[in-house]
Here is the input.
Amino acid sequence: MNEMKLTSPVFENKAAIPAKYSCAGQDINPPLEISGVPQEAKSLALVVSDPDAPAGLWIHWVMWNIEPTTTSIAEDSVPRGAIQGSNSWGKKSYGGPCPPSGTHRYFFRLYALKHKIELSPAATAQVLEQAIRNSTIATAELMGTFTRRQE
Here is the structure.
């Protein structure tokens, strides 16, 4: 069985995320490539988080009900039919890396699920992760880093 994978054409796993995709740039989501989704998956969910934030885990993007046939998420886009939840800024959108100082790690986690998720569009990553706990059949992770240059 193929392993589910999440990659990006603009940064390698464990490498720097280009500034274009950060608060110092255009603050748009980087393009993502998805492969190896299990055939039994009925939907996908994506959570982008920064565990190095001073206030604890900071959520940059929350999205669910992505079609399981999706093979890519284009730059600055949301797959048709997908629902975006609330990030740590309280917005229903992507928020790019924006560390107050130093280098932070950003985890893009993709979940293959047994069914579609019924949640309020205001749901947070924590609510989503509880909702999918028993229906996750595969996960993939892509980690990028970002260092904020001091002005």
Notes: The first helix runs from residue 125 to 132. Strands lie at 5-7, 15-16, 32-35, 43-50, 58-66, 72-73, 83-84, 103-113, 136-147. The two ends are 48 Å apart (CA to CA).
